[in-house]
Amino acid sequence: MTTLTADRTFSEELDAIGLRDIASRSVTASESDVTRALTRGAGERDLEDLAALLSPAAGARLEEIAQAAHRLTVRRFGKTVHMYAPIYLSNECLTTCTYCGFAKDLEIVRRTLTVAEAVREAEALTAHGFRHLLLLTGEHQKITGVDYLEQALRALSRVVPQLSIEVQVWSEDEYRRLVAAGCDGVVIYQETYDRAAYRDYHVAGRKRDYDWRLEGPERAGRAGIRRLGVGALLGLHDPWREEVIATAAHARFLTHRFWRSEVTVSVPRIRPSASGYVPRADVSDRELAQTICALRLFLPDAGIVMSSREAAGFRDALVPLGVTHTSAGSHTEPGGYTEPDAAEGQFEVNDTRTPRQVAAALSGIGYDVVWKDWDGVLRA
Ligand code: SF4
């Protein structure tokens, strides 16, 4: 059993966890390990329990695990799903991540939205009901630096009450500037928690610095960000279960350290993109469903995010197992809601339903859609 030490960074914590060892138990766990993990109470499970719940032995008891995850999700969240939409503000990027369709050297149509164009995109989304937008950019220090983000956030906060960002990582002071401009959520996927794989994929640009990125959510939390999202891109590293365990450990660390913030996790699978990247590890639908259940049982209060990377029917089926946040009608190209196909997208979206269709499908299985659960006025 691993315990968190108050003054450690997560980078230090991760080194102390013994990730390889724990991950190996996610392959070798026995029937009795799974039973022990299942019988423990919410909030009592440790990383070894998580490993057992991710194991093939637990996979053979998926129905039982799914029911436990469903009961816990309904107890903590009710039958609700929070809806958000991504706005890609720019696909300019000075970094080369070899799996990404925006990587620096790819010959794609590049575009950065002006603030007025971003507002038009936001208005198109609010007309569909969205009240929470996630702003995304590539990593370009000048074109989409803090000044640009501040301007965009200030303008957009007049249109939508909840604004999150998924952009390059910043210092604590820079996050404070973004909070003051209206940002209340930060999403930072580590992509892969494996240091060697991270070095292989991030061949140029500021993102090469593993620890600077890993500690980004802590800087954002200290700066007063209210929603912190972490995740790993499943497929980049084999064994993929190691990534899930690291993501869960990261989320639990942030939950303890920043108890006022809402913490979310995401385990997206790689989708086809202009990069032509072929994943190193395949995660089947059944394994992803088991992963969602295991995450829910390990992290009873964390939001679990499922984007439109996944197919429509599969996404709907995952909601009762623990998914609490979802996007809909997403475009991954800058300007895609008002001028579709005017620039290249980051990856291919799988679920192409409109927001209303997604909301209707959720309502059909007895879930209420939450378009807004926060207002900046509550911060006062
Ligand atoms: S993942 Fe981000 S930083 Fe890396 S190439 Fe894509 S947009 Fe650039």
Please, could you describe this protein's structure?
The protein is α/β, with parallel strands linked by helices. About 40% of the residues lie in helices and about 15% in strands. It is built from 16 helices and eleven strands. The protein has helices at about 10-15, 20-30, 30-40, 45-55, 55-60, 60-75, 115-125, 145-155, 170-180, 195-200, 210-215, 215-220, 240-255, 285-300, 310-320, 355-365; strands at about 80-90, 95, 130-135, 160-165, 185-190, 200-205, 225-230, 260-265, 305, 325, 370. The strands form two sheets. The protein has an eight-stranded parallel barrel, surrounded by four helices. The protein has a two-stranded antiparallel ribbon with strand order 2-6. It is globular. The relative contact order is 0.17. The model has no long low-confidence stretch (mean pLDDT about 95).
